[in-house]
Protein 1
Amino acid sequence: MIYHLTEYFDRIGIDLPGQGLFNYLSFRAIVAFTLALLISVFAGRRIITWLQKQQIGETIRDLGLEGQMQKKGTPTMGGVIIFLSVIIPVLLIADLTNIYIMLLLVSTVWFFLVGFTDDYIKVFKKNKEGLSEKAKLAAQAAMALAIGLAVCFSDQIVVRENVAVEETVTAADSGTETDDAQTAAFTERQDVIKSTKTTIPFVKDHEFDYKWLSPFKGAWGWYCKWAIYVLMIVIVITACSNGVNLTDGMDGLAAGTSAIVGVVLGIFAWLGGNIVNADYLNIMYIPGSGEVAVFMSALVGALIGFLWYNTYPAQVFMGDTGSLMLGGIIGVTAVLIRKELLIPILCGVFFAESVSVLMQRFYFKYTKKKYGEGRRIFKMAPLHHHYQKEGIPSLIKSPVKAIPEAKIVTRFWIIGMILAALTIAMLKLR
């Protein structure tokens, strides 16, 4: 709103001190981060107090984990703090006419409502199961499909390929006299196009086109490539949403890891939305996608503020209200800026957590059917709980002794940072 207000002032000739700063993406990203951080820290305390008064506490199942029962009664549904801390700065600072911001706002609200409904059933209806797995998957897939169709049919979601940037020419260099100290021009060798291309590491142009997977050519090939692309979008967004949800089992783990991922996605959005940087890194220039950096800045600020209360020992849990929303935001952002194929590396922690659950479940069922007794790969799934258990028969026996929760979380953060740095470095690996 403030951004659009400054635009209106520019049109009618009003020039307030500092007004022009809102034209700069970097300034608005910093402001969004700061506002989100302040809202999360100061409003978070009030929300936690209210949750305590309403006795909206976490119900803990005894899984034999160290310090587990001490968390009983800790306020849950803290994802409300993250939601408000993201939405308010974005509405104030971001360009609300930008298609990428609109899609992110809609998807954020949707995934928030899905998670909120799940937590509401658990807390107020006293149903520990919450929403059924099928209902949650259906809701997640529905929004993912909507995002995929928007990417497919919206004329505002395009890419510009083969960007060529002319050198800056000064009067001294050209040997001519001119009123301007220097001039710069940007030219594109191709117009904006609808494309099924995305970013992939280790290849010369960092590009992969989903049409290469289509067995058809011509008109059928066009429909097939977009069908494949939309299907991939649904898989990525749904997987990300569930991945963060599975990771949310230790104080600060999901929030801290999501903040690391958010920083990288914000950097990618800023680079891909800037014509100069896109040309330098030889990546797709996506007009308008730079505005996503404002959204991601708000998200990172909100998560850092939330960690003030969520680090061990946690004063509040985000619940499915926060975890499903965070995963949805990460997945949608990765899709919109064409970085979804980098998710297994960038979100390696979430990926490992999800894979550990699948491996444990399928192996247990397989061995129970074959031997009459279910066996485990990990001492406990998701993966972070494996390091908390000791004395449980499993294929992977290391570590021998249980590791304190705070140490596990810190080590996972470090792994997340390493993966984040590796993901960024991949842009220069050809």
Protein 2
Amino acid sequence: MLLRSNFGTELYMAKLTVKDLNVRGKRVFVRVDYNVPLEEKDGQMVITDATRIVETLPTLRLLLEQGGKLILAAHLGRPKGKREPSMSLRPVAAKLADLLGRPVAFVDDCIGEKVENTVGQMQPGDVVLLENVRFYSEEEANDPAFAAKLAKVADVYVNDAFGSAHRAHASTEGVARIVASRGGQCAAGLLMERELKFLGEELESPARPFVVILGGAKVSDKILVIDRLLEKANTILVGGAMAYTFRLAQGYQTGKSLTEPDKTDVAKAALAKAQQRGVKFLLPVDDVVAVPVKTDKLDKKGKPVIDYQQVRVNADLNCPPDAAGLDIGPATVKAYAAEIATAKTILWNGPMGLFEDKRFAEGTQAIARAVAEVTQKHGAKSIIGGGDSVKALNKAGLGAQVTFMSTGGGASLEFLEGKVLPGVAALTDK
């Protein structure tokens, strides 16, 4: 497998995949992404979306067919190095057993004697899930001693957690280094392989026109991505709050919209580069605005909840002084959908507005429908770069109508920026 970061600027060596391994009778340490949403119901933590578990099944089944002993490691939430019962992976073990159709043993620790004894009794085809690795602060610190304790039960290492591949943590990078130093093999799982194929190889030489849709809150989160994409895309469509930093750079009034005044020079440079390279760089021509009002309610972080009043379409490129732009407007939707309809390859990263609020969801949903339609009716290849874009598509019931949805928001962004992902770099070269 050729693992390429965006647009050929960084080239990963060909890495082993699970298809290259002989794991019969071996202890296979598999890093998976089981950071699933949980809710408390009747005193029990219940998984509300098992997608991340389901996506690992092809890798696990292949390794089981080959007679491996599977030791699964994952994180859940941000327990900050402490045991947090609400973030235990125990419910995940039960769900995985149901999905796999075989027992999954759960160990309420990820290192130590209990783990070693359980693994010592395993037979080929057995599956064990370890407790949340982030219950130890040494995980995120990539502590070598902690990584060595994890690696103690590993003959082979498999990373199928693309969503964590941009983190140099003990379970994503440290264990792989130790296994490799002992002469063991470290390989990409099937899900990891697919992620890298679509985000790397497929975008290296995309069928044209290549249309990029960029949304989200901040230009600063996407500076490097924008710069890379300007070298490859035919058209870039911008939405979300980040559009207002571009408007500000063009001299328009942005009212109470979220902006980054210190990034207007970056926005101006991007607009100039687009013009220079002949890339269509489209910004909203209208928007949905509302007046933000603080309420007496507090959110989970203790900050006042903001309500929005006087919701309306604003056809002026200047935003009213008392209002914030919260979605792209109908004229923008029409213009963007027309561009999307011509595309042969689409990359979408970031929503068009505050889609969690149904009053400001239409822009994002309309773009989702346009992407799904050109994929289904005209065979365009549509790649969704993780995070909120995936949530929006699933919310609209269109997740199955695009070509590929990335499981890693942060990882996909860093990959598209051309950064080396530590969790991939640590895998064995072919």
Protein 3
Amino acid sequence: MRESKNCAKIRLAMVAVAAAALLLTGCGGGGGGTPPDSDSTPDSSISASKPEFEDTPNADGVIWQYAKDGSGSTILVGYSSEGAVPQGAVKLPSVTDEGYIVTEIGARALAGTNITSVTLPEKAAMIGKQAFRDCTQLISVDLQASRVNVIEESAFANTGLQNVVIPASVKSIGMRAFYHCTALNSVSILGTPNMDGGEHGGIFAGCTSLKNVELNDGIQRIADGMFAECKSLETLRLPSQLTEIGSAAFSKCTALQQITLPETLTKLGQNAFAFCENLQQVTIPAKVKKLEGYTFWYCKNLTGVTLPDDMTEIGENAFAECRALENIRLPEQLATLGKNAFGGCYELKRMILPENLTAIEDYTFDRCEKLEKLYIPQRVLSIGRYALSADRAMEIYYSGSETQWSYVNKQAGNTAVNRAQLHYNAQASNVN
């Protein structure tokens, strides 16, 4: 039954109050915080009651609900249970029955519905937190036809999207925005948006079918976890102005075989390429002075690595379990070689430690069963626990005297040292 005009006016006033309250509780715009995992209960902060401007069903029977914030934005916050549930190809309204222009898609507005495609409002600038999350049948959305400049966290997580083109108008992409879109095959980012990640769930993390990625050359940072567990990604051209690859950005990209790092790069985050089991060759650019921990951990088919001469630090486990790595030349300026840096590198045969090194840390060459020759500079004062634990004889070339060697602190578990054939007053060239 339709309301009288007076009742409608009263109702509209009540809606305005309710809308203000809605904004205070976080509905419609989506605040920060960690999104729930795909199997967890939706965030309660975005499930508040949804006020409406109108209750007239559209031709498809869907009753859309809206809210309005203090700046004049009109938010499509969802649909009424009294009408039909959105499904199939859906065109979202650009204007309400009262003439308000829709400028935002609210948090969880269509989450979990059986829509297959969606046309966004022409002037929608924001897609809210989890707006289309768990729409597993959603295969297409045209972001280029709208004015979207913000895609909030988990907006399209766990959907059936197959191809995504993010236009230059988009200035911000939130954490897990396209997380676990397992049908996604290609991604193009045409602009240079700010991107947030999170080591265990980046923007495109878990997109297991993703093969083709095009990134604007102006992008300077690959976000944390951005392409983690994209198991079909084989090749990738990185932006020419890239300066940083975040933590776990490409971890568990098990099909990745080759990657060229641009000369502009200055930082590789922890676990950046960890568990990239088929990565074979890599050259680290000259501006990278420090290799973070676990960077190439468990890249078991990595055979060739080129490091810049000015690199001063290699973090713990940086090349641990790189089982195919036979030879690697350490940088001349290297002063710190982290724990277990080459642990489990079974094929490693020769190693020259740089003159600036003062210690061989715990487990640095643990289980390097084929290590035949090792050059140790006289500045090394300690050999940590199980640093050279291979159960075999090897040749150690020490640049100091026998007396100096006797003062080196050799901790427990260094069976290879105990069995080694020692050469004193040696040169690094003796190892070649």
